[in-house]
Amino acid sequence: MYFFLQIALSGIATGAIYGLIAVGYSLTFMTTKALNFALGMWVMLGGMLTYSLNVQYGIHPLIVLPVVMVALFALGLVAERFSVYPFLRAGSDVWVMSTLAVGFLMIDLAEIIWGRNPTPVPPFFGKDPVYLGQVSILPQQLLIIAAACVTFVGLDFFYRRTLPGKAFRAVSHSGDVSSLMGINTRRIEALSYAVAAALAGIAGFLVVPLTLAEPQMGTVLGLKAFAIAIIAGLAAPRGILICGLLYGAFEGLVSGYLYTGIRDIVGFTIMIVALYARPEGIFGRRQEERA
Amino acid sequence: MSYWIRITRLAAGVTVASLAAIGSGIAQDVKLGFAGALSGPASFVGTEIKRGAEIAIDEINAKGGVKGRKLVLISRDDEHNPVKTVAQYRELVERENVVGIIGASNSASMLAVAPIVNDTLKVPVICPATDATEITENEAQKQGRDNYLFRVGMYGTGQGNFMVDTMVKKFGHKKVGLLTWTGGWGVTGRGELQRRLKENGLSPVADETFDNNDTDMTAQIIKLKNAGAESILNYALVRENTFVVKTKEKLSNNTPYVSAWGIAGPAFWKAAGDSAEGVLTSTTVTIDGPQSPERKAFIDAYSKRYNETMSAAVFAVGAYDAVYLFKAAMEKNGFTPAQIRAGLEDIPQFKGLIKNFTRPVFTKDRHNAVTEEDMIMARWTNGKLLEVKFDSKGPYVELDENTKKYIDKSTMKLL
Amino acid sequence: MRDTRALILLIVTALAAIPIITGGTYYAFLGIIVFIYSIVAIGLNILSGYAGQFSLGHAAFMAMGAYTTALLTKALATISFFAQTGLHILLGVICGTIVAALSGIILAVPALRVRGPYLAMVTIAFGWVVWKILQEWVSVTGGDLGISSIPKPQIGVLRLETRSFYYVVLALFLAALALQVRLVRSQFGTRLRAVKYSEIAVASVGIDVYRLKVIVFVISAAFAGFGGTLFAHQQNYISPDNFQFFSSVFFLLAVLFGGAGTILGPVIGAGVLMLLPEMLHDFDKYRLIVYACLILLTLYFLPNGVMGLVTRRAKAQGATDTQASGDDQTAVVLPAVSGAELQIENVSRAFGGLIALSDVSVRVAAGSIHALIGPNGAGKTTLINIVSGTYRADSGRINVDGADAKITSMHMAARQGIVRTFQTLKLFGNMTVIEHVVVGKARHSRVGLWDALVNSRRGKEEDRRQLCEAKALLRLLGISHLERTPATALAYGHRRLVEIARALAVEPRILLLDEPAAGLVAEEIRALAVVIRKLKSMGMTILLVEHHMDLVLAVSDRITVLDHGAVIAEGEPADIRRNERVIAAYLGPSHAAA
Question: Domain for residue B13, yes or no?
Answer without folding.
Answer: no
